[in-house]
DNA sequence: GCACATTTCTATACCACTAAACGAAGGAGT
DNA sequence: ACTCCTTCGTTTAGTGGTATAGAAATGTGC
């Protein structure tokens, strides 16, 4: 029935080379040395200048706001209107070559398919776009070789700055990168505080989680943490310790396990290990939502129900948290805003390369859902 | 406890301007007109040529593989080694300006945060990357103005091609775009078959869904479709009709509703409308997974259970389908592969602009999960 | 009416790279 | 010894835009 739409091939209609009629006394057409290819060539500054009867440099002046004052009003108007009329647009390549700027920012991230990143990327994207910058993404899959390669690719492209979502606490390349161009870290930071960063306030976030569980009556709260070599993993663990203490709850290192990375499978493994230690607990604070999902599987495998037997709190508040079974209580981090801020910071860094580094922490909100409940009485 | 990591600001260590010692008889340093800024300037072709004692154009020949044959072996070696030694990298801006190619492809998509897109984008990204191309994303949020703007931005940047995930069946801008540069559609197509596209084989996909439900014993299968102005919405609807007929199942237009767009909320609305028509059905085939989630809510709101009272089949097989409550049976489309293919097609189109358009359909697989079950007996 | 200041525009040069045309050197052929 | 050819390199010019210096036009004051 739909066979007619399958694997068909059909000639492209040959497009017209629209050669805009050039009125007035200047007779040359726009870029007479037009290539013979399929596509139309763009109008250049020279084309505009010729038609407006001025020198290209005058046209250039007229067209860029900052130098506009150096042009007599009537000339200005003439240039502007012919430019408008001819549909002139500056060629950012040419301008970039001259100014040594590409108006492009590179971003390295582990994997766009990780649901944490798309909203951040959108934020960055939108933030940069409003200032005329474009974003080039490079996924590294946490492969150090690929990371090097992608970095080289971005550098080669002369990006005006680099945003990194790939940083680990020890991250030797960073020095090298930061020495070459403006650099901003998102979501994660390094131990050496050299470079600006934007992330969520994990202190506050873990606090919300601990206090929420404490308020429900939990005392034996476990931690299935993320990778300690990532700042997020380490910080959340530290803040877990800190808040447990300050809430007067017992901390037992047998109730703490770590994953090697922030994935569902590793979360399951770690959680199974935790359970099999046989130390009693009624709630888990996890390193992120994926690990939390891993805990769901592990708990289920050992016949424990969420939240009846064990409450689980995630971190990040990725999309679909509310659709999980049960819906996952999670510390929501403002992902889009993190991106926006990172973009703003990048623009600032490009503008003023000598400005000092800043760490920006954005507030989290606890989203309480069905994965947390009071512990069964008696425990 | 973590106060020390909060809102700190600290001077960046001033980086050294590493001025590589230039040996040999040529005494000028690399780019003596180095700017005074924070960052090091790149080594140019001239620098290499000077040091290797050849003309820049000879160096250029030596350095690009295609013209390498025109250079005597010893000269070649000398140029190559000095280039290596000085860490020379071509400036893509300059090359792009000369060759009128940016080695960059633009992509317009509605919203990266839609879980359908990240895997596709990764595929495109990886496919392009391997050929030395980079990808620039532009999110449009389906706002026609934004769409125009983003398009202009991409054009201005002289991208070598455009990949569109924003096409609707009637999509007037497309002609204009396709006349200007290589264009490839992903996921969706237009009614006028002018431009190459890569999407999933919806005929096969819906077939899998219908036959799965039929095999379970369902006869009254409803369709909560997507937007008809998108090819995906229209095709899936048509194929639903087709397969229902060919499976000998009754088609009742009262069992068909459409959403205005592929979102969860609109899915809920549409499904509520469907239920309130009072016509009996035991299963729903939806326009995509988000609509399926919307149906979950609607069914729940009317006291119907999935899958006991109504089976639900999604489309796309987005991430976390298996975590939903209940886990969603869905037609999985090979998102990453779609991206890869789109990239390949784009590269081909850039290479040979006159090549005819092709529509590539990739096979789907039905992932059966807990949202589908046999209908309760008696119905 | 002239010197001088100011405004407005043009010419030049450069950003980094490369295709095409050109030229020099060396070898082969007669 | 002379031309012709091949090989390898350089010169030239051009990609589009803009800062800078300087030229031309205009205005000002006496």
Which SSEs are present, and which pair or pack?
The structure is a homodimer of 379-residue chains.
Chain A: E1 9-10, H1 45-52, H2 56-63, H3 73-86, H4 92-99, E2 104-109, H5 117-129, E3 134-139, H6 144-156, E4 161-164, H7 173-180, E5 183-186, E6 196-200, H8 202-216, E7 221-225, H9 231-246, E8 256-258, H10 264-276, E9 283-286, H11 289-301, E10 311-316, E11 329-332, H12 335-351, E12 357-362, E13 365-367
Parallel strand pairs in A: 2-3, 2-4, 4-5, 5-6, 6-12, 7-8, 7-9, 9-10, 10-11
Antiparallel strand pairs in A: 11-13
Helix pairs in contact in A: 1-2, 1-3, 5-12, 8-9, 10-11
Chain A binds a DNA duplex (30 and 30 nucleotides) through helix 2 and helix 4.
Q: Which descriptors would you attach to this protein?
A:
homodimer; 379 residues; alpha/beta; six-stranded parallel sheet; 12 helices; DNA-binding
Please characterize this protein's 3D structure.
Two copies of one chain form a homodimer. The first copy, chain A, has helices spanning 45-52, 56-63, 73-86, 92-99, 117-129, 144-156, 173-180, 202-216, 231-246, 264-276, 289-301, 335-351, and strands at 9-10, 104-109, 134-139, 161-164, 183-186, 196-200, 221-225, 256-258, 283-286, 311-316, 329-332, 357-362, 365-367. In chain A, strands 3-2-4-5-6-12 form a six-stranded parallel β-sheet, sandwiched between helices. In chain A, strands 8-7-9-10-11-13 form a six-stranded mixed β-sheet, sandwiched between helices. Residues 1-36 of chain A have low confidence and may be disordered. With 379 residues, chain A is α/β, with parallel strands linked by helices. In chain A, α1 (45-52) packs across α3 (73-86) and α5 (117-129) runs parallel beside α12 (335-351). At the A-B interface, β1, α4, α5, β3 and α6 of A face β1, α4, α5, β3 and α6 of B. Chain A binds a DNA duplex (30 and 30 nucleotides) through α2 and α4.
């Amino acid at each position: 029935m739909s066979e007619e739409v399958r694997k068909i091939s059909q000639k492209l209609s040959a497009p017209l080379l629209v050669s805009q009629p050039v009125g007035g006394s200047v007779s040359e057409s726009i870029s007479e040395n037009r290539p013979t290819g399929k596509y139309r060539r763009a109008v250049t500054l020279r084309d505009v200048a010729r038609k407006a009867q001025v020198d290209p440099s005058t046209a250039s002046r007229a067209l860029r706001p900052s130098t506009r004052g150096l042009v007599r009003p009537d000339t200005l108007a003439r240039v502007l209107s012919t430019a408008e009329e001819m549909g002139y647009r500056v060629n950012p390549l040419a301008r970039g070559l001259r100014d040594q700027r590409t108006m492009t920012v590179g971003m390295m991230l582990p994997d766009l398919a990780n649901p944490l990143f798309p909203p951040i990327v959108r934020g960055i994207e939108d933030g940069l776009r409003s200032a005329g910058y474009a974003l080039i993404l490079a996924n590294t899959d946490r492969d150090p070789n690929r990371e090097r390669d992608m970095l080289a690719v971005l550098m080669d492209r002369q990006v005006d700055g680099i945003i990194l979502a790939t940083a680990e606490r020890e991250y030797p390349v960073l020095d090298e990168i930061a020495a070459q161009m403006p650099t901003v870290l998102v979501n994660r930071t390094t131990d050496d505080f050299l470079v600006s960063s934007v992330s969520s306030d994990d202190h506050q976030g873990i606090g919300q989680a601990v206090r929420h569980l404490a308020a429900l009556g939990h005392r034996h709260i476990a931690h299935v943490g993320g990778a300690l070599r990532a700042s997020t993993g380490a910080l959340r663990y530290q803040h877990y310790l800190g808040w447990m203490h300050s809430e007067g709850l017992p901390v037992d290192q047998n109730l703490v396990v770590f994953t090697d990375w922030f994935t569902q499978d590793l979360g399951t493994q770690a959680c199974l290990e935790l359970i099999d230690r046989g130390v009693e607990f009624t709630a888990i604070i996890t390193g992120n939502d994926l690990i939390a999902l891993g805990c769901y599987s592990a708990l289920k495998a050992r016949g424990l129900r969420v939240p009846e037997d064990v409450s689980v709190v995630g971190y990040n508040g990725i999309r679909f948290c509310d659709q999980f079974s049960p819906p996952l209580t999670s510390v929501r981090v403002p992902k889009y805003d993190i991106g926006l801020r990172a973009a703003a910071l990048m623009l600032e860094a490009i503008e003023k390369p000598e400005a000092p580094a800043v760490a920006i922490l954005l507030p989290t909100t606890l989203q309480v859902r069905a994965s947390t409940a009071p512990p069964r009485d008696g425990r």
